[in-house]
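Subject: design request, 342 residues
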């Protein structure tokens, strides 16, 4: 079933005793598929949800092998060592969203495995930009020493409400100021959108996609709509299982909408599945006990966080700015996303 996913660099093993040994053993393998991006488009949710398929073996942290010179120079053996163990019939996968926008990555991936499967999740570039900027603000609040919420901070009962009030005031001031900061970030002095800003560039998807298409056939790339992943995760996960030549096992009922979080979370329908996934949860997962027979697991607070407020005028301006890029993306990818229609 997965022969077409065989990694070229491991071909040396194919006719050796080691090959038959590897077939029956759980060993670390180079990935046969990579989620290459894009940043803040739902990469973590996609990977966590994909792990509902037990054939998927995912590296938990972002490996950053192809984009960080200090990692790349360690070679493929190091890269393999970052992967989980898997059987031959399973699919090893990692996600490092920086790959999509980093110049050298496509060629380097091709050097490793020219027939690899690539997964690219994209969302409305305006929402992506706001999400990216909001992460900056949230990180600033989190690292502003005085108000840091840390396990090590001990606040006495009598000072707790005072602390909480100050903390909340501080946060709301930062978020209020952030609206103006966002405007200053995205607009040039003449009022146009500043296309030189890094976070704005990331949303010019076809600029980067062209680079990947120079190295890989379009059929090796699968596009996931990050907006649909939010509203109907099953739909995107099912398509992805098919693309990865997996037996589709992910079901509608694996997802339950959590009103408090405002996003779909994973519903565990049996204890075995729950232990498998929670045991392997890695970062960004939190387990919520609902009752004795069922549990849901949501992504952490850093996923689905508060967004900076953006005026309607500025949103429209950004939509107009991205519209030609989106059109070009649709023609390159063959998939039309219904994003930010002006
Ligand atoms: P926000 O936190 O700005 O809402 P990434 O994992 O690539 O950094 O993407 C983070 C984004 O994933 C979040 O951005 C959120 O909108 C999106 N997302 C998609 N499905 C989600 C889910 N089920 N739970 C939480 N966040 C999800």
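Subject: RE: design request

Done. Sequence follows.
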């Amino acid at each position: 079933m997965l022969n077409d996913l065989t990694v070229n660099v491991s071909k040396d093993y194919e006719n050796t005793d080691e090959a038959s040994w590897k077939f029956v053993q759980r060993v670390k393998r180079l990935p046969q598929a990579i989620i290459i991006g894009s940043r803040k488009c739902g990469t973590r949710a996609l990977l966590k949800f994909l792990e509902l398929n037990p054939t998927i073996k995912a590296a938990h942290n972002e490996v950053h092998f192809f984009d960080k010179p200090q990692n790349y120079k360690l070679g493929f053996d190091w890269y393999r060592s970052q992967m989980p163990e898997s059987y031959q019939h399973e699919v090893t996968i990692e996600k490092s969203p920086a790959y999509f926008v980093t110049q050298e990555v496509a060629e380097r991936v091709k050097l490793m495995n020219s027939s690899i499967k690539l997964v690219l999740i994209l969302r409305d570039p305006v929402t992506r930009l706001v999400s990216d900027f909001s992460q900056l603000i949230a990180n600033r609040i989190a690292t502003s020493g005085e108000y840091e919420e840390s396990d090590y901070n001990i606040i006495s009962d009598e000072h707790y409400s005072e602390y909480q009030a100050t903390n909340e005031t501080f946060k709301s001031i930062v978020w209020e100021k952030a609206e103006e900061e966002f405007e200053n970030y995205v607009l040039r002095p003449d009022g146009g959108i500043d296309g030189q800003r890094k976070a704005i560039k990331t949303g010019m998807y076809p600029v980067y996609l062209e680079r990947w298409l120079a190295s890989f056939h379009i059929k090796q790339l699968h596009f996931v709509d990050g907006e649909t992943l939010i509203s109907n995760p099953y739909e995107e996960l099912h398509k992805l299982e098919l693309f990865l030549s997996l037996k589709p096992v992910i079901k509608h009922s694996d997802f339950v909408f959590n009103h408090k979080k405002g996003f779909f979370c994973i519903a565990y329908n049996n204890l075995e599945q729950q232990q498998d996934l929670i045991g392997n949860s890695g970062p960004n997962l939190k387990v919520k006990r609902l009752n004795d027979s069922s549990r849901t697991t949501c992504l952490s607070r850093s996923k689905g966080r508060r967004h900076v407020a953006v005026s309607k005028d500025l949103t429209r301006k950004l939509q107009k700015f991205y519209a030609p890029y989106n059109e070009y993306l649709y023609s390159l990818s063959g998939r039309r996303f219904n994003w930010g229609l002006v």
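The chain has a mean pLDDT of 86.
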